[in-house]
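User: Sequence recovery, please. Input:
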């Protein structure tokens, strides 16, 4: 194992006298014996420390900051409860995510509702529960929301999601702020101005501010600066032309995390420095009031806390070609390598300090050639029964999981101070047929 790999794991990661990986004070081999394999392990201390770091780095530079966790990265009741206890807001994108927030008694005023095609039922839910802000993506939604709010004799509190036309240099599947995108009102085409004009006219809409989100993960600070320049210039033009006062502004989320040891990722303080200093300088230059700043980190709050642990089964050595080490999970629980060519590293949770002596490819168990978790990684000698631990699996793995090949979802446990608790039980075969209606005619 290279020592650097251990640094990718949660902040509590350690190695015990059995040479086993320890997370949150719990021996991972023992966790797999207790809860089965594969297993997702989340470290509570890492989630809390990330929440605190984001709030500290932004609020210490700009007091009027709201940090809202982007729940699409991974939400369930246990995670929502932690986010609530840490005093953050919550960015949601569906009725399902809103319902998790409700289930843990999240303050609705701290909830933001996103999405490029929210249904009428979801908008009704947002209005009835009194969500803090609905982030309106398009004119259809704006008009529908006005009508629904009018029916209730209330006003809907909104931000407008803009498309600034800035390339954040992410994978094309996770780029959202370029002109050719399904998200937001493009500024360059004049559609954003139409939206501002309309929102100001509609009787049951209160337009509090503007929002943009460029993509994810963004491993440079420059795109945020470019996005702020475009959007703040637009805000100044809207002030001059339509007397619009931007009281709130969100540059979204997208802050990167280190997935592999060699990656250069800016610290949270650099993102905060860049966003806050540009916001202050540009608002002063353009004569705009200082808005409330809303940031929406998702991946960067939860990714490092999660570790996927698999058991090795078959090993296929193709001489002079490749050695495939097959594990009992794969694209069903982590689609990111297949979808985005995402890169990961790994170590053996039951032999952490064994020397890396060979190059292997860690393949999943699903019936797709593309089901490869890690291609060509230096690892120790591996045999059936060994435990492969992949770090930085806390974001966009579990929530994007599928039951492809009718394989049940793994169990998820939360570890903290030497104790483990199950936060989502392993699916059973009966769960997979729960919604099927008998095939008999
Ligand atoms: C509007 C919005 N905000 C925040 C996020 C969170 O991004 P990340 O998890 O990279 O921080 C996303 C992700 O797609 C998003 O669409």
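Assistant: Recovered sequence (441 residues):
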């Amino acid at each position: 194992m290279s020592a650097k790999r251990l640094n990718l794991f949660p902040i509590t990661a350690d190695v015990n006298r059995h040479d086993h990986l320890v997370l949150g004070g719990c021996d991972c081999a023992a966790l797999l014996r207790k809860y089965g394999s594969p297993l997702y392990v989340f470290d509570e201390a890492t989630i809390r420390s990330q929440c605190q770091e984001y709030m500290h780095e932004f609020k210490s530079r700009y007091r009027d900051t709201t940090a809202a966790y982007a729940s699409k990265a991974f939400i369930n009741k246990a995670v929502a409860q932690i986010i609530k206890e840490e005093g953050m807001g919550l960015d949601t994108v569906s009725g399902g995510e809103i319902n998790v927030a409700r289930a843990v008694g999240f303050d609705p005023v701290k909830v933001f509702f996103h999405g490029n095609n929210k249904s009428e039922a979801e908008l009704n839910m947002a209005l009835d529960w009194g969500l803090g802000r609905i982030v309106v993506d398009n004119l259809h939604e704006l008009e529908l929301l006005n009508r629904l709010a009018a029916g209730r004799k209330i006003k809907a509190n909104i931000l407008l999601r803009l498309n600034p036309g800035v390339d954040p240099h992410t994978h094309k599947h996770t780029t959202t702020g370029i002109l050719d995108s399904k998200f937001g009102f493009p500024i360059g085409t004049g559609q954003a101005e139409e939206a501002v004009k309309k929102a100001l006219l509609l009787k049951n809409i209160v337009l509090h501010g503007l929002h943009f989100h460029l993509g994810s993960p963004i491993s440079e600070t420059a795109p945020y600066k470019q996005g702020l320049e475009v959007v703040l210039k637009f805000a100044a033009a809207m002030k001059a032309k339509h007397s619009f006062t931007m009281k709130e502004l969100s540059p979204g989320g997208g802050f990167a995390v280190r997935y592999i040891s060699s990656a250069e990722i800016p610290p949270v303080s650099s993102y905060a420095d860049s966003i806050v200093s540009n916001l202050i300088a540009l608002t002063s230059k353009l004569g705009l009031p200082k808005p409330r700043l809303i940031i929406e980190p998702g991946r960067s709050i939860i990714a490092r806390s999660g570790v996927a642990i698999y058991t090795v089964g078959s090993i296929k050595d193709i001489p002079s070609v490749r050695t495939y080490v097959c594990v009992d999970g794969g694209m069903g629980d982590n689609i990111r390598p297949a979808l985005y060519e995402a890169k990961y590293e790994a170590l053996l949770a039951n032999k952490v300090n064994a020397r890396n002596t060979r190059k292997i490819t860690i393949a999943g168990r699903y019936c797709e050639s593309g089901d490869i978790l890690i291609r060509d990684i230096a690892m120790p000698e591996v045999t059936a029964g060994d435990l492969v631990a992949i770090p930085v699996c806390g974001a966009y793995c579990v929530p994007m999981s599928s039951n492809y090949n009718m394989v049940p979802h793994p169990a998820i446990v939360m570890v903290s101070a030497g104790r483990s608790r199950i936060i989502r039980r392993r699916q059973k075969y009966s769960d997979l047929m729960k919604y099927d209606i008998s095939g008999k005619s």
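Residues 70, 72-73, 91, 114, 213, 216-217, 252-255, 296-300 surround pyridoxal-5'-phosphate (CB under 6 Å).
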